[in-house]
Each structure stands twice: as C-alpha cells, then as structure tokens.
Amino acid sequence: MKKILLAGLVLTGLAAATPAAAQQCGNDSSGFDRWVQDFKRVAPANGISPAVVDRAFANVSYNRPTITADRGQKSFKLSFEEFLKKRGATTIISQGKKMKSANASLFDRIERRYGVPAGPVIAIWGMETGFGRFLGNQHTLSAVATLAYDCRRSDFFTEQLYAALKLVARGDLSTTAKGAAHGEIGQTQFLPLNVIRFGADGDGDGHIDMVGSRADALASTANFLKGHGWVSGAGYQPGEPSFVAIQGWNAATVYQRAIAYMGAEIDGR
Predict the structure, then answer these.
(1) What whole-number distance in Å separates Cα of residue 230 and Cα of residue 124?
(2) 214 CB-near residues (< 8 Å, 6+ apart)
(3) What keywords is this UniProt entry annotated with (predicted)?
(4) What is the distance, to the nearest Å, from the Cα of residue 173 to the centroid of all Cα atoms in its chain?
(5) Which CATH number, 1.10.8.350, 3.40.190.10, 3.40.630.30, 1.10.1040.10, labels domain 19-71+136-186?
(6) How far apart are CA 219 and CA 202, in angstroms?
(7) Mean pLDDT for the chain?
(8) Burial 146-182 (b: 16+ CB within 10 A, else e)
(9) Which tens digit of pLDDT belongs to each residue from 8-39?
(10) 188: burial class by Cβ within 10 Å (0-12, 13-18, 19+)?
C-alpha cells in the first residue's frame, strides 16, 4: 500500500521509553540480526512472553521491499484529479455502490453503532485493498520489525512491533500473515497499534480478524473514524465537522479529499 502512515497514533503503556526503543538502529541490513537478538532479550520485560517472541520471530528477516516502499511514496504529490485517476476513483465509486447494496444490513448495523455512514467506510475499503482483493504480499512481522530497526522512525515502529506481538499473543495475527509494505493488516490496512486501539469484533466470534472477516474490518474502520472525531449525522466534506476524522486516517490532503469525495458519491450525497 503506497500511503502516508496514519496520523495521530500514540501508544500508552506499551513500548514507549523502553530499553527496546533505545536499541541500536541501522540504515541497512548489516545490523538487523543483532538488533533482533537484542529486541528478543528485552521484549519479555515489556509484557511479551518468551514463547510468543520466539514464535513471532521464527520467520522474521530484513525486508528490503519495505524499505524501498518507505522511501518512495510519490503518489501524494499528484493533483487531486490526477490522484483520483491513478487510484481508480470511478471504479471504486461504481463497485462501492454495489457493495453498499449487497451488504446493506451490515452497513446499517455499523452506522447505528458508530454513527458513520457506509460511503466513507466503503471508500477507504476500496482505496486500500480493492474491497479486500489486494491485501499485500509482504510478511507483516518482518515489515514491522524492519521499520522498528530502521533509524528513520524506529521509536514509532517499535511501538507497532509491540502491538503486533500482542495481536499474536491473543490469536488475532498469524505469524505467517502477509500484508502491505509497512505492516498494515487486513482489508482496510490497519497498522498493528490501530488494531489494538480500534479493532472491533463486527461478526461476534470473539476475535478481531482484519483479514478474513469483512464485518470486523469494516466495523473497525468505522470505530477508528469515531475515535478520531466523527460526529454522527454531520457532514464529512472539507470544512464540515466529520472531515477531521478522515484527516486522522491519512496525513495526505489529497488522500483525505479522495475519501470524502468518493464516500459522498457512494452515499448519493
């Protein structure tokens, strides 16, 4: 997924100011294995059992595609019209209307619970993964660990790595899971910490499955928007009250405007 990372992510009580955050970062693969061993030593002191750490890191390796993607986010420099064309807005709107109709009862439940209408949730779903068809092909734990080691945003992704390990521990993330290049998970591409903070059990099975459960992914997306200031019944175009929640989803203005525009078209507003 080529997107600027979600704004407004603050972790309380996980990995902030821990010894793991102070480990030696690096800008190439040469120190990654040593960093992993250091991390595995301190992780149990930060609430992750040794068994979970060993299981989670069994297949972790330095992920070069993640670094390439992290250095090459260029689509956000396009004009609004160029961005809509590049992201296939016409197709997303057309298919999104069909998705809304086909899943009417689900979207009705979501709106009743979170106050968020179908349009913006569907726009996000379509933009992020083509309605669940393109979830990404990068090993999630490797992607997050690589960015935790990388010096550019080591503290931020160390928090994400601890969140991912918590998901592994509670059975909501497979150690073999694949997703987008920055470790985003599932049908609407949540970073691990967002799953911890805003993940919702939309299908009532006791787990939050962002990959396999459409209901979980969409309910979690609505919960994220509610948690970032969505006002039930209010408008969500630029300058309207609920647009602030869309700004919380992505830091790029062009991306925010695209969600608002496509959401309104899908909602028929």
Answers:
(1) 15
(2) 103, 106, 132, 187, 202
(3) Signal
(4) 13
(5) 1.10.8.350
(6) 5
(7) 91
(8) bbbbbeebbbbbbbbbbbbbbbbbeebbebebbbbbb
(9) 343 334 444 444 445 789 999 999 999 999 99
(10) buried
**Residue 128 amino acid letter:** E
Q: Which pLDDT tens digit goes with each residue over 206-260?
A: 999 999 999 999 999 999 999 999 999 999 999 999 999 999 999 999 999 999 9
Residue 185, helix vs strand vs coil: strand
Q: How many CA atoms lie within 13 A of 177 on its CB side?
A: 30
Q: How many CB atoms lie within 10 A of CB 264?
A: 18
Q: What is the DSSP letter of 157?
A: H
What's the pTM? Answer: 0.88
SS3 106: helix
Tokens at residue 72, please?
């090459």
